Amino acid sequence: MCRLLFFCLLFFTIHIEFCIAQLSNPNCIWIQTGVTRFIPGENYIDAGSLRIEGIYPKKNDSTGVSGLSYNLETNEVIITYNPHYKHSLPDSLLICFQQFPFHFSKSYFHRSQQAYDSGVYKNIYQELTYENDSRKKKKEAIFQMPGIRKQGSLTRGISFGNNQDVALNAALNLHLEGKLTNDIEIEAVFSDQNLPFQPEGNTRQIRDIDKVYLALKHKYGKLEAGDVILKNGKSSYLKYNKQVLGAMLSLNKTDTIAKKAYQSQIGLAVAKGKFSSTSINVQEGVSGPYQIQGPGNERFIIIVAGSERVYLDEIQLQRGINYDYTIDYNNAEITFTSKRIITRYSRVRIEFEYTLQHYSRLSTIVSHKQQEGNLHFFADYYREADGKNNPLTFNLNTETYEALAIAGDSTENIFYRTNPDTIAQYDLNNILYTKKDSIYKNETYTIFIRASEQDYPLFAPNFIYAGKGKGNYVLGNARNNGREYFWVAPENGVPTGEYEPGNIITAPDSKKMLSLGGHFELGKNEFVYAETAFSNEDRNLLSDLNDENNTGQAIKIGYQNKGKALSFSRSYLLQAAFNIERITENFRQIDRFRPVSFDRDWGIFQNTQVAEKDQIIQTSLGLVKDKKNAISYQIAFRKKGEGLQGIQHKTNLRQQLWKFDVKGTV
Q: What burial class does residue 583 get, using C-beta atoms within 10 Å of its C-beta: 0-12 exposed, 13-18 middle, 19+ buried?
């Protein structure tokens, strides 16, 4: 007990001495009488140590000072004199004080925050500098280029459970932006979340889970690589907006004084999806979910996230649980929210891209735009095609090649028979089959029936839905170990079932379009223009049959005046337009180039696109003040095939009356 008291007493004694030692030895300064303020030095002083140690001359009995004080903010000593002794003040005063050995306004630290942020310290126990850590210096050299802003994260994780092994997970999220040199800028996004699924379609904006994007920018060009978006130019017929994985190079130069400019683009990429447009038959009061089918009525497709455009009664909707609809990309199902009322008369059209599961698909674009004075012209080329020699879901052998070659353009559900896999041992957990001969109406058929443990040989055929009345098997009730198929006899040689053992293959196809056009400026807001487009769609690259209808052409010429001053009105401008358009019956679009309600406005209500010649002549005249005040009249003549020939009148009115906006279309 005494030893403990001794150590405690020793500790407090040393601590008190240490605190007292923080103050320096007394400093003394001679101050001339009459000075009311002075700065004692750089460091702060102890206000309690201020005192007057002497006066000069010593014959004076009084210092004449009534008080000494200290201002900590300004680091000044303030002298207050007694007015009763102003005639008997000494000549000088000796003022003494003690100073602290540091400055309170300065920052003191053992390890600086700036050094921590720059990575100087390797860990909390050891301080390293760049000079004695060459490995650290090499590691940080890439990210120490001036002018580049960087942010991101790299995470590691371990997952384990009762029914799984230990797995190491990683996620990377890195963003770079800034200047590499004085002329070149960089923009990069590297994101890898190690997740094998697409984002959910219940938000308005979708953030890519896995994305790789790199762009180098120059005032005369731009190079992009990774996950890029291909968009069309000024063409009226060549429309596309594709999410792809590849590279794109853009070059441009402008001379405004000489009125010369050019812009060129070239891109090569692997397409993530294939464009499709379909209508959905909805039910009264049912918000969904509704199944979205592919162009060949495929029931199981995967939609590329963020590629869809949904129209309800020709009005484009917004995705999100708080907006108009949500969509399940993996199951291709759409559900409308309570903000949209669905009736049996609702018209729903969905445009989307769905993933390609049979072939890899390559997209190529080449475009050029140029201005020479008042002349503007452009050329756009787009091509997307399947890799016909490397299918992903089946082997291209003699049987499959012949099946595709004789199919021509009839590419829906190309069926071919295959030898089923032979199973060496019977398995109770799987439904296996064996071959038996069956006699029906004096005809012998070799069929597959459910095998028992004593049967041999054993097979595992793949049954494909061929269509009603196109197969010899029907689907039975589902069992615990799978589904069983039963053979049904044909009637008069015509199959009565729906399924067949074999496989369905898809033919590789391609789409190409070349668009050429330009316009010549007659005045400030007046020009004439012309454009022609050539399309080529081959529905089966492995067949020469039916290729005579692959090509088509569209042409359009016209005149437009965007605004001409009127002599009788300074507020309104006169607008006028005239154009003639002709499309051949075999012209095929890449993406939709007409408005959604275009055919419906002409009384065409069918959903499928019929290959027919289309001729349109239209002219319009209008008065425009601004976006909220305008009136226009349009008359058009259209002849499409043998089923449509007519004249259309359309009047648009927009007028602002006080605080109300009036809009109408007739």
A: buried
| Cα torsion through 419, 421, 426, 431, rounded to 10 | -80
For residue 175, give the 3-state DSSP assignment.
strand
pLDDT tier at 507, thresholds 50, 70, 90: confident
Measured between its terminal Cα atoms, the distance across the chain in Å is: 105
Alpha-carbon distance 518 to 655, whole Å?
34
pLDDT per residue as tens digits for the range 440-487: 888 888 888 888 888 888 888 888 887 788 888 888 876 766 788 888
Asked if residue 264 has pLDDT above 90, the reply is yes
Structure tokens at 642: 């043998």
Q: Is the pLDDT of residue 142 over 90?
A: no
Whether 279 contacts 349, CB under 8 Å = yes
Residue 531 · residue 555 · CB < 8 Å? yes
Please state, in angstroms and rounded to a whole number, the distance separating the CA atoms of residues 313 and 660: 25
DSSP line for 282-340: --TT----EEPP-TT--SS--BPTT--EEEETTEE--BSTTSSEEEETTTTEEEE-TTS
Token look-up 């305008």 returns: 630
> Assign residue 493 a region: left if phi > 0, alpha if psi is -120 to 50, beta otherwise?
left
Cβ-Cβ contacts under 8 Å for 648 (sequence gap 6 or more):
601, 602, 634, 635, 636, 637, 638
User: 297-333 burial string, b = 16+ CB within 10 Å, else e?
Assistant: ebeebebbbbbbbbbbeeeebebbeeebbbbbbeebb
- Return the closest-CA partner of residue 463 out of 478, 483, 445: 483
Q: In DSSP terms, which residues pair with 29 in a beta bridge?
A: 95
- How many angstroms separate the Cα of 559 from the Cα of each of 345, 371, 506, 622, 625? 39, 19, 45, 14, 21
Question: How distant, in Å, are the alpha carbons of 44, 46, 56, 70, 84 from that of 31?
Answer: 18, 18, 10, 15, 20
**0.70 exceeded by pTM:** no
Q: If you search the block for the tokens 């997970």, which residue do you land on?
A: 169
Q: How far is CA 364 from CA 267, 382, 385, 386, 512, in A?
A: 6, 6, 9, 12, 9
Question: Residue 367 burial (CB < 10 Å; 0-12/13-18/19+)?
Answer: buried
pLDDT tens per residue, range 321-346: 888 999 988 888 999 998 888 998 88
The total of other beta-carbon atoms located within 10 Å of residue 58's CB is 8
